[in-house]
Every structure is written in C-alpha cells, then in structure tokens.
C-alpha cells in the first residue's frame, strides 16, 4: 500500500512501510484481546481479497427489542470499522454483500430505509474513503436501483476511480446467478456484433465479463450470524475460497472478530483440489477431489 492513510476513526497517521513493524503497530490495539490477536497475525500471509456476507442486523435489533432499522444503523458502524481495519492491514480488496436481488421482497419501508441509509453513508464517509486512497466499486444490476441512489453511486465511483489503495466492492441489487447470466449474455452479444462463429465459451471469458473482472477471486469468505449458506453471493468467484462462519451477528462483528477470521484463514492449508506437499495417495484415490 505505498501511500499514507489518515483520519480513520481518530487513529494516528502512518506510512505503509511501517507494516514491517507488525500488525499491532498498524492497528493500535484498544485492549488486550486485540493485542493478543494481532500478535498471532502473520502480515505476510493475509488474504488478497476478503468477501463478507453481512448477516444478522434484524436479529440483533430484535434481541434488543428495537426496530429492524436500528440493526441496520448498527451494521453501518461495523462496516466502517471493518473497512478501516482491512485498509490498514493492506488487504487488496474487500467485498461487502449489502443488498441482494432477493432483498426487494422485504417490506417497502425497510427497503426504502436501506436506500436512504446508503445515501447517508456515502455523504458522510465518501470524503474519508477518498482521502485514504480507497477505490469504491459497486457490483450488481445497478439499473434497477432508484435513480437518486444510482446517481450518488456513479458520482462516488467516478470520484475514487483513480485511487490506488484498497478496492472497496459493494454488492447492491446483486445475485451470483444473475451475474453469470449477464456475463454469458454479454459474451454472446459481443460475438454477434463481431460476426464471430459460434463456439464453446471458455472459463476465462466468463471471468473477464463478471462484475468483478480485474479483481482477484476471494481468498476468504466470511459469513456472520451462523447461517451455513452462501446466499447466491459470488458463486463463480468463491470456487476455492476458504469459508469462515461465525455465530456473531454483524453489528457485533468488531475488529477482534475480523482478526479471528484472518487468523483462522492462516491456519488453513489451501490445496486447490490437490494434495499437501509430500502427502502420498494410492492410485485408486488419486482422482478424488480434495
């Protein structure tokens, strides 16, 4: 991250070269728990891309006998903390699942509040995001979002398009199946316009036409609230992602929770369908998927 970050939540400014001093130097632990976790974190083995299904806002509010919108507001604070921490650690890309195509089925009042909350977030946080060299990317079928939301998002992406720091990817009106369909249709349309002969579509062609084209596939997929499903999120891209599920509801997923997920990721042995170095197998099992 060859740049200087300032202004996040009152933390002191630092230069990216200071990463060599350790994660605890970058994040300034606020308690002993965070300090212990930071000591365990290997800065040389962080995931390039972390994707998060932010789940549990409604349940968090219900457990406190609060309206669901209170949970969404609390979730925004968590998002701010996770974005800040990820940027400070030097993670290349962070993707947050903010609103799925299925979320339109929720009550109109809740959907309307979520759209207003998004615009409010952009007004308050965009100057800080831009100042800290973070690039905002929005994925999903943006044409179906309210015009005012589309305008704000377009302006935010344009403002930060030249930034070279962490890529903050926000999935809005997003669905993994729809994304793959859109990619295939785009390929077919390009072939039609170019009058190219029909032929098989290669995996790389699809990857190049996804909303996340140009980004590394997620190394780590985090899901809060304990649900054991991927909810139509980045279906193509998470083929070999390590999946980390926590019972913690999203508004309670603070920096220590993020560090725990990163440490668990570093404990995993990523084999991409192969075997560990030096591990032997019989011929009859050599074709099995690991």
Summarize the biggest pleated sheet: 6 strands, parallel
Counted up, domains total 1
Q: Any idea what the shape is?
A: globular
Task: Write the H/E string, N to C.
Answer: EEHHEHHEHEHEHHEEH
Strand content: 5-15%
Level-1 CATH class name: Alpha Beta
Mean pLDDT rating: 89
Number of helices: 9
Structural class: alpha/beta
Distance between the termini: 34 Å
CATH architecture grouping: 3-Layer(aba) Sandwich
Could you give the order of strands across the largest sheet?
Answer: 5-6-4-3-7-8
Question: How would you concisely characterize the structure shown here?
Answer:
The protein contains nine helices and eight strands. The longest helix has 24 residues, at 108-131. It starts with a strand and ends in a 23-residue tail after the last helix.
Give an overview of the whole structure.
The chain has 290 residues and is of the alpha/beta class. The protein has a single domain, classed as Decaprenyl diphosphate synthase-like (Undecaprenyl pyrophosphate synthetase, 3-Layer(aba) Sandwich), CATH 3.40.1180. The chain is built from 9 helices and 8 strands. It has helices at residues 23-27, 32-40, 57-63, 68-89, 108-131, 147-160, 176-193, 203-209, 255-267, and strands at 4-5, 14-15, 49-53, 93-100, 135-139, 167-174, 220-223, 242-245. It has a 6-stranded parallel beta sheet, with helices on both faces. Strands 1-2 form a two-stranded antiparallel ribbon. Strand 1 (4-5) and strand 2 form a beta hairpin. Helix 2 runs parallel beside helix 9 (255-267) and helix 3 (57-63) crosses helix 4 (68-89). The protein is globular and about 65 Å long. Mean pLDDT is 89; it is low at 1-16 and 281-290.
